User: Fold this.
Amino acid sequence: MTDAEKIFSLLEKDYPDAHCELNYSTTFELLVAVILSAQCTDKRVNRITPALFAKYSAPEDFASVPQEELEKLIYSCGFYHNKAKNIIAAAKAIVKDYGGKVPDTFDGLLSLPGVGRKTANVVFSVGYGGDGIAVDTHVFRTARRLNLSQGKTPFEVEKDLMKAVPEGMRNRAHHLLIFHGRYRCKSRRPDCAGCRLTEYCNYFKNKNEVEK
Assistant:
């Protein structure tokens, strides 16, 4: 068993219920929620989307909403100007180029305006059951700490994880790393005392070296 397989086996024991914590009822709502979640917590997004989706839910709705109106509804998510612009542009492309259906391939999702690799991977994996790994801040941090990658960019980390994680397990690995980063291996003051992965962790080893 490789170190990567051991790491994910242990993570599975710690977070058997690891899953996407964004609330949505359609793949398009998932796409909108993921765009809103950039540099914003899922909890905050989930406080905003019920009222948002009650008013607008389909791509056709968002394609025609005035940007100023949408900005008011998503203001508390931060970066509301760019997020509103991206959501509307993506909705227009879905209506025009995909007949109102969110594309079900990674490349199709990536072709949408305002949709980067992280967003495309989340929608591909969560919305369509694809075998991708989305690298958000949690995945970037935990993958590097656990020596699964030493990539200096999210794309480099994504490529390393795609090599390290067996095919068919990448979707699951993405959620496990997010939960580990969100609930234990936090950016500041990670719970090393409660972590069973310290033997694989660069952060823990370096911290111990400094304290010696």
Summary: The chain has two domains: 3-17+134-211, 27-128.
